[in-house]
Amino acid sequence: MSVPVLDLTRQHAQIREAVQRALQDVFETQHFILGKHGKALEEEAAAHLAAARAVGVASGTDALLLGLRALGLKQGEGVLTTSFTFFATAGAIHNAGGRPFFAEIDPETFNLSPAAVERFLEEECRPGPEGLPVHHATGVPIRVLLPVHLYGLPADMDALNAVASSHGLKVFEDACQAYGAVYKGRRVGTLGHLGAFSFFPTKNWGGAGDGGLLTTDDAALSDRLALLRVHGSRERYIHEEIGYNSRLDEVQAAVLRVKLPHVDGWNRRRAEVAELYRRGLEGIPSVHAPKAPDGYTHIYHQFVIRAERRDELKAHLADRQIGSMIYYPVPLHLQPCFRSLGYAEGALPHTERAAAEVLALPIFAELTQAEVQEVCEGIRSFYAGRR
Ligand SMILES: Cc1ncc(COP(=O)(O)O)c(C=O)c1O
Fold first, then answer.
1. Distance, CA 200 to ligand 1 centroid (Å)?
2. First CA to last CA across the chain, in angstroms?
3. What pLDDT, on a 0 to 100 scale, did the predictor assign at position 242?
4. Are 300 and 184 members of one domain?
5. Which of 172, 177, 299 to mutate to test the pocket of ligand 1 (most atoms within 8 A of CB)?
6. Domain total for the chain?
7. Which structural domain range is residue 238 located in?
8. Among 200, 205, 214, 248, which residue has the most ligand 1 atoms within 8 Å of its CB, making it the best to mutate?
9. Residue pair 213/207 in contact by the 8 Å Cβ criterion
10. Least packed by Cβ within 10 Å: which of 59, 100, 104, 342?
11. Which atom of ligand 1 is nearest to the CA of 149?
12. pLDDT, tens digit, for every residue of 269-324?
């Protein structure tokens, strides 16, 4: 039996008619940008997350870019984040005019370690103007802390918020992989000053193309975001600042609205699949399966194991027609485009070790128990030396 890493056609089969009706509505009205679906989607997402405001944009990457601008990041200022994330996290920092700084992850959760963040701010920075920490070696002031809820597991936001606030940093959650995840009773994206989400089609709440969303309780921030996404213009042809063309279009919003009522159920089913994996992988000493800490609801955008001889295991699974992915094989501090930041190999040992050991197994709400068993059997046979 082959097992795909993701099969969106199974999801579409459940909602086909509703999606077609929603698309028909958009095409009948011929209103494609900033219409009723986009507005309704913002209201529905804000209510679902218990955020005061939500602002739709063209992608998760743009959500990060516009969000950093709205938070007041100035040219040449620093943003402290994780190196173990999708490229967009740091790409957006650069494109917003900032300089990324990378702190170490917690090896158990793969998320930014609050202790490492504190160490960076205390030991590698000194107090500077505006109460912001200034990085000793570069003289760069650090304005924003940007944690990522990687694979759908919330980062330790109480600890991160505490260290950020004691150093005067704004907190911007990269929740692009974690729509619906809950941290101590609250949804991610509402735990810092601002949250960014992605509607890339493979996400737990995915569109029919690119899309993104920002969430905040701060009305001034959401007004600024609404301005930035339309070239900084409130009144037609008058531009208060230089913004972007970054709207969530009506086709995306209409499709996403059909899916939203299903998302919590789909996320719960992913957690059940994760539990099936944990049981199926029990007793394989070469494999470490993920588990959410108490008080955290992991939405398993990815189910990522640590595995000995990871690349050989991946090839073995591929031989058995079982899909798997490596998120992410090269940490951002070692990317060629960030060479000028001056990080050497060995700078972030937990991050580098994770990059060498992680393997994402197939996970989606419609994955069957038999498919999970097939994957687990494939892994077991590899370590038992059976082919
Ligand atoms: C952690 C993270 N940040 C940012 C992004 C960027 O989102 P998008 O692909 O919608 O631009 C993604 C997803 O692709 C992501 O996984």
1. 7
2. 15
3. 97
4. no
5. 177
6. 2
7. 8-104+112-257
8. 200
9. no
10. 342
11. 1
12. 999 999 999 999 999 999 999 999 999 999 999 999 999 999 999 999 999 999 99
Query: pLDDT tens digits for 181-231?
Result: 999 999 999 999 999 999 999 999 999 999 999 999 999 999 999 999 999
Q: Are residues 74 and 42 in the same domain?
A: yes
CB count in 10 Å sphere of residue 368? 13
Do residue 353 and residue 366 come from a single domain? yes
Residues 134 and 192 in one domain: yes
Structure tokens at 109: 């959760």
Residue numbers of the chain with a pLDDT score lower than 50 = none
Residue 387, pLDDT score:
55
User: How far does Cα 29 stand from its chain's mean position?
Assistant: 33
Say yes or no: 227 and 265 in one domain. no
* Contacts by 331-337, CB closer than 8 A, 24 or more apart: 331/83, 331/84, 331/102, 331/355, 332/83, 332/84, 332/85, 332/87, 332/89, 332/90, 332/100, 332/102, 333/83, 333/102, 334/83, 335/87, 335/90
- Residues near ligand 1 (Cβ within 6 A): 59-61, 85-86, 88-89, 148, 174, 176-177, 198, 200, 210, 212
- In this structure, is residue 3 part of a structural domain? no
Cα–ligand 1 centroid distance for 360 (angstroms): 16
301 CA: nearest ligand 1 atom: 16
Query: What is the per-residue pLDDT for 385?
Result: 84
Domain endpoint, select from 202, 223, 257: 257
